[in-house]
Amino acid sequence: MSSTTLTVSGAVRNKGRRAKGGKRADLGDRYFRSGWEANWARYLNWLEERGEIARWQYEPDTFEFPVKRGSKFYTPDFKVFSADGSFVYHEIKGWMSPESATKLRRMALHHPNVTVELKQIKEYTAIAKALSKIIPCWE
Q1: pLDDT of 15
Q2: Among candidates 30, 12, 29, which has minimal Cα distance to 21?
Q3: What one-character-per-residue DSSP string does 62-124 give?
Q4: What are the φ and ψ backbone dihedral angles of 48, each rounded to 5 degrees?
Q5: 73 FRET partner, CA 20 to 30 A, in 9, 60, 101, 136?
Q6: Is 99 exposed, middle or buried, given 0-12, 13-18 or 19+ CB atoms closer than 10 A?
Q7: Quick one: which of 59, 15, 53, 2 has its CA closest to 33?
Q8: How far apart are CA 66 and CA 88, in angstroms?
Q9: Is 12 left (phi over 0), alpha (psi -120 to 50) or beta?
Q10: Distance, first Cα to last Cα, the chain
Q11: CB 20 within 8 A of CB 6
């Protein structure tokens, strides 16, 4: 096996494609729901090594919405800290499902002081194109 050891423990269907969820040996044997999320973690590690961010956490917080039906909870993918201690959340989306869109709308409505930065295909592919050969184990 290569240095990008992936232990797949399941897959999530997204519009006909399979997200490769599993543990990544190069990321401390931590589980990620998709290759994109694992690559974003590698990107955040690269930013941390360069001193551009202080640190990051994967899915550390879950927010609750005071609703009776539908999505009641939302867990952003990454919490990214600046050197001054402030933080923002990064949400990685290759495809926006109706449920995900609802969660993001509810997040903005019920938790307006929390910043969630949506990282979609355009930004992800630009970073992948620029850095996939520089950052080790990029999938």
Answers
A1: 44
A2: 12
A3: -EE---SSS--EE--SEEEE-TTS-EEEEEE-SS--HHHHHHHHHHHHH-TTS-EEEE-HHHH
A4: -65, -45
A5: 9
A6: exposed
A7: 59
A8: 22
A9: beta
A10: 14
A11: yes
**Nearest Cα residue to 96 out of 105, 109, 88, 87:** 105
Does the pLDDT at position 84 exceed 80?
Answer: yes
Residue 9: pLDDT over 50 = no
How many CA atoms, within 13 angstroms, populate the side-chain half-sphere of residue 88? 10
Neighbours of 49 (CB within 10 A): 10
Place of tokens 């190069």: 26
